[in-house]
Each structure stands twice: as C-alpha cells, then as structure tokens.
Design a protein that fits this description.
Two copies of one chain form a homodimer.
Chain A: H1 9-12, H2 20-24, H3 29-38, E1 40-44, E2 49-51, E3 59-65, E4 68-73, E5 79-85, E6 90-91, E7 102-105, E8 109-115, H4 116-125, H5 127-153, H6 156-170, E9 178-181, H7 186-193, H8 197-209, E10 214-216, E11 220-223, H9 226-232
Antiparallel strand pairs in A: 1-8, 2-7, 3-6, 3-8, 4-5, 4-7, 9-11, 10-11
The structure holds a DNA duplex (30 and 30 nucleotides).
Organism (chains A, B): Palleronia pontilimi
Protein name (chains A, B): Crp/Fnr family transcriptional regulator
GO molecular function, one term (chains A, B): DNA-binding transcription factor activity
DNA sequence: CACCTCTTTTGACCTGCATCAAGGCAGAGC
DNA sequence: GCTCTGCCTTGATGCAGGTCAAAAGAGGTG
C-alpha cells in the first residue's frame, strides 16, 4: 500500500465523497470544508487485497481512480465476483464493522476514505448525504439484480459480450472504433461471469473471429459496432449499463 | 385484486411501514398517526401480476402477508427471478416512476401501500425513515450479492438445497423436524435458481431419496436436520440467510 | 539475448444440466 | 365417483461448458 498525494485529489476526486459535487450542490459552504477535513487518501497496487472477507473494515469511502473488485468465496475455494467498483463508486458499509466481501484492487487504485464512525455521524447530521447514499445503494441493487440475470440465464458467449460491452461503454470516449483497456485479467472476468478462464478465453477468441471485437495486446480491446456486440450479449440495443 | 380489511392490519402489519415498529421506536406520537393515515392496503391472489417490467408504479410499500417475486425477462423469454419478497420486505423504489422488474404475487398477498410522492415527502421530512430504508436497502444488496454466488458457482443440487434451507429457516417455528409450506411452484424455483423445472424436480427427488428432506404433498416440506441440508448447500453450517 | 515466470490460448475429452417427450397425480367441477 | 386441467416427476438423449493438459506469448531480469 503506497501513499497518494492529496494535492492530486482536487482534480481526481471529482465526485467524492459519495459523488461530492452531486451531494454538495445542496451543501452550505462550511459543510464542504468539514467534509474535506475528514477525508484521507490511500493507494494500492494492482492485485493487492484491501480487506479480506469478514475482516474488520474501519473505513468507508469511494473510488477515486482505478478499479476494485468485490468477491465472495466458498469454503472449497469457488469464487464469485459480486461487484466491480469504478471511480465514484462507494466502498464499505455504514453500520457494519466487518467486510461482507473480499475487496481487491484490480488495477492500481486510489480510494478517498472516511473513518466509519465519523462518516456515520455525518450521515445522522447531514440528511442529504444519507439520501444520496440511499439513491446510490438502490442503483447498486438494481445493478446486482441485472447481473443475476446474466449469471442465471445467459450463455457463455452472451456473458462475455455483456461484460465487454459494459466496459466499452464505461470507458467510452466516443471514438470510432470504440476502445478500452480491460481492467480485469481473464481470471477476474471468469470470476465475475461464473465461468472458467478457458471458456472466457475461447469466447473472446470467438467474438474476435466473428469481427465483433479486435484485441490490441493483452488488455486493449476495440469494438467497431457496439450495437452488434450488444445484440450478441442478448440485450436490446439500448440495454442499460450493468455494474 | 381484492380488498384487504384494514382492521386486520393491526396484528398483521407488525413491521409496516418499512418495519414500522423499528422505525417508530424513535417516532413522536403524532408521527405514528400521520404514517397510519397515509397507509392503505391491497390484496392479490396467487399468480396475479402486480406490475409488469417497465410499467409505471405509483406506489411503494411493504409486504404484510404472503410472498411476492421480482423477475427480469429477456426479449426471447428467458426469465430470472431477482428477488423473493417476504412479510416486512419493501416493494418499489422511491425516486423512480417505473418498475425495474415484474412483480408477481407468488401466494395470496397483502401489501401495505403509500403513494410514492407522499412517501418521498415523508423521506425528506423524517430522516430516520430514510436511515431505516438505507439499512434495508444495504441488506437487500448483500442478499442479492449472496445470491450471485448461488447462481454463478453452485451446482443444481446445491442451489436447490440452498433455497429449501432458506425457506425452512424463514418459516422456522423451531419444531422438530422443521416444516414449511413452499411459497413457490417448481417453475418459480427454477426461475429463481437459474435452472429448468425438470432439474429442480430431479434435485428435490434426489434430496428426498438421500433422506435430507421429506415431502408432504406438493407444497409441504420437512427437514430432519437443517445443518445436513446446509452442508449439501455448500454453506458452512451457520451460513447466513439469503433472500 | 537468454532465461524465467506468469498470463493467455488452444486442444481433447467428459459431465452436468438442458431439451424433448411421456406419464403420474392432485384438486376442481360435474 | 369420473374427467379435465395444471402441476410435477421420470426417462432418453445431446450439447455447452468444465476439466485436464500442453503450448504460445509477454514481460521482466541479469
């Protein structure tokens, strides 16, 4: 775990804490200062574990840069990723001392952190922060439920297409063709999709051979026609973003 | 859709709205009256659709008696149940006019309802209701993520054992052997578990032949040893309740 | 460059669950 | 009671994706 230079935060932490700007549209001036005084930043390298499943988690916060994964593990070692956190996503759970999932940095990662007890006090004192957090939690719940459809009913090819399309849309810079760097290894993708690494690899190859995507090195991906990829994913063309 | 006699509500609606007692532990006396004045009750028969996916949903509320299902459907008809609502569970989404999922009465069902706009006003005026709702939403999110592990990684037998164990524990009256009435048809179970109806049936038969459960008619189920069933489910013995 | 390690791809084979197709059984209505 | 209808179970077969094994890249290091 390395130190993050807080002076970088002004630009990087656009939407923090919990989508700072959105929240603070209704903040008084000194509320912003109080929030700012409570923040700290911490960084991790790709692959580092932030908390283990069940371990105490004395902070909450949000992703500033990079990408983190939430994973549940069965006793025999089977693993399922249950969330993929991107910048501005919330980490941790007010009102609960232990992490329900393992949290791992998928890429190099910086979090904006609050001590949990201080954050809980803020929730009580500042209702609009609680309202914003409720809204975000309900969005997360919808995303989790959408992903249940992916896990329960989609074929391997549809699953991979769904994930790639989501990543492409999030990273979207409206270039043509659409490009993105995959924040996940093949193994992490398999863990997310309820597949094995071999199946993920085969399906990616299949999509490449069908001309739906192009690979640029190990992590780079390009997509000439997102709507074609979405059809392959079994979604209607304007299917919603899934976490 | 039939009318529910509000006079029955006093007993039945122990935890409504949004676990009324829990909320109202910190309510003033007249807050309770105001909440009560906003409520209404409505009942549905087993199998009736309450709202279709994407249709306008002008109310929110909570389950008083019975059991409802939340389901997402793909264009080609594949369906995945994404939530199973039991008494005291919350229905609907403040801040959103349309239902994200189809809601169906799995059994005969009574809901305690609030007009959505009135409820949203209450959320703004009564912060502890919002806090309670946040807490409930985070619990739902954990449950949804736990179910992702079931869908993504468990075998058919483990899935069925997981569902049956959850139902038995919810209905638990601490009798021995544990008994419950299944609120779901085989088809609904299949939709929940990401399986087909035939596979569900075969796995139930398998669990019965292994002596882990006994069937009592079509809907009745008994379990002589819950911890044995939980081991079959791939959980540790005190695995948590899953929605 | 050679060497090592880690990730990804590819191949061959197998199995768990889906699919297709009959039956069986319980409750409702006559 | 009989029959109809809607669930549920059972059987036979096929295939998608898992498993096991090996090879091919892609970095990193001396």
């Amino acid at each position: 775990m390395s130190q993050f230079d807080p002076s970088l935060a002004t630009e990087a932490c656009i939407q923090c804490p919990i989508r700072h700007r959105a929240v603070c549209a209704s903040c008084e001036g000194d509320e912003i200062d109080r929030l700012a005084a409570m923040k700290s930043y911490r960084s991790w390298h790709a692959g580092e574990t932030i908390v283990m499943e069940g371990a105490p988690l004395p902070f909450v916060g949000s992703v500033v840069t990079g990408c983190a994964t939430l994973t549940r593990t069965m006793e025999d070692g089977r693993m399922q990723m249950v969330g993929l956190l991107m910048p501005s996503d919330f980490v941790g759970r007010p009102g609960r001392a232990a992490a329900a999932y393992e949290v791992v940095a998928a890429t190099d990662l910086t979090l904006c952190l609050f001590k949990r007890d201080a954050f809980e006090r803020m929730l009580r004192d500042t209702p609009h922060v609680g309202q914003r957090l409720l809204e975000m939690s309900l969005d997360e719940l919808d995303a989790a439920r959408d992903w249940m459809l992916v896990l329960g009913r989609k074929t391997a090819r549809e699953k991979v297409a769904t994930l790639l399309a989501n990543i492409l849309r999030r990273a979207s810079t409206d270039t043509h063709p659409l490009r993105a760097e995959l924040p996940l290894t093949r193994e992490a993708m398999a863990t997310y999709l309820g597949l094995t690494i071999e199946t993920v690899s085969r399906q990616i190859t299949g999509l490449r051979k069908a001309g739906l995507i192009a690979l640029e090195g190990r992590r780079g991906i390009a997509c000439p026609d997102l709507s074609a990829l979405l059809i392959e994913a079994g979604d209607d063309e304007d299917g919603r973003l899934i976490d």
